[in-house]
């Protein structure tokens, strides 16, 4: 009932990574966003094997008692809600007490503590909605290159080589959905917050960002236009110039939501790789023109 989409934070960080020099912490944060999203998509593919007796809600953000919490995936059945925290960790790790470490002895956040906190908040949310339903919560590790040493038994952890067996277990427990399950899903969707009010985006300014049309394949910049295609010298990729310009317009409006869409500005944003005339035609065909003398601009069509 709710597909997983790239967050605006991820798409903005992806643009900034191509258009400016990120600091080391910012690069790490961006890399973690990309890796986490890829892991969640991998988990989504696994979820597709479940029967129609489950409702899947992905990437949810809630607030309860002035506290925000995020859920990677919820799977709702007729008698149980499965709460999944998805991790795309890669490499060797070990546990000592309640602490998790890489083999280089760098401490990382304990995902079991994160799971316990978020599951507790979710349980409070269900109680506030008047639902009394069993909750099973798990940390799911999806990367086959992940290894955890000294893992305690009987913990809510599913490793990559256990996913198929866990899927079989869920299919055996499936039962036809009831009206209460659907009502719960609808209420949760209505309470979902579209974006977190807390942002970790770096500061950026239009004048200091590199201009051009970003290549979809290598995240470099297209270097030339040949007939109707933009060409990337770095990887050889080519893309229809109209599609590429429209993507660049959306990127511009996401980075600068208070700026108006003006032909001259988009021409500058694309670094002149497409002519002013062609950009005007693209905008006229896909946006609504608001005429205001020399200050005319474009907005999204209704």
How would you summarize what this structure contains?
The protein is an alpha+beta fold and 302 residues long. The protein is 37% helix and 23% strand.
Topology, element by element:
Elements: H1 8-19, H2 24-47, E1 55-64, E2 67-76, E3 80-87, E4 91-96, E5 99-102, E6 107-108, H3 111-129, E7 134-141, E8 146-149, E9 157-158, H4 163-173, H5 179-191, E10 224-226, E11 229-231, E12 238-240, H6 241-255, H7 263-269, H8 276-286, E13 288-290, E14 297-299
Parallel strand pairs: 3-7, 4-8, 7-9
Antiparallel strand pairs: 1-2, 2-3, 4-5, 5-6, 10-11, 11-12, 13-14
| End-to-end CA span | 25 Å
- Average residue-wise pLDDT: 92
What percentage of the residues does DSSP assign to strands (E)? 15-25%
Number of helices: 8
Helix content: 25-40%
The geometry reads as: globular
**Cα Rg:** 23 Å
Strand arrangement within the widest β-sheet reads: 1-2-3-7-9
Q: Flag low-confidence runs.
A: none
Following the backbone from N to C, one meets helices and strands in this order, namely HHEEEEEEHEEEHHEEEHHHEE
Walk me through this protein's architecture.
This protein is an alpha+beta fold and 302 residues long. It is 37% helix and 23% strand. It is built from eight helices and 14 strands. It has helices at residues 8-19, 24-47, 111-129, 163-173, 179-191, 241-255, 263-269, 276-286, and strands at 55-64, 67-76, 80-87, 91-96, 99-102, 107-108, 134-141, 146-149, 157-158, 224-226, 229-231, 238-240, 288-290, 297-299. It has a five-stranded mixed β-sheet with strand order 1-2-3-7-9, sandwiched between helices. It has a four-stranded mixed β-sheet with strand order 6-5-4-8, with no helix packed on it. The longest helix has 24 residues, at 24-47. The radius of gyration is 23 Å and the shape is globular.
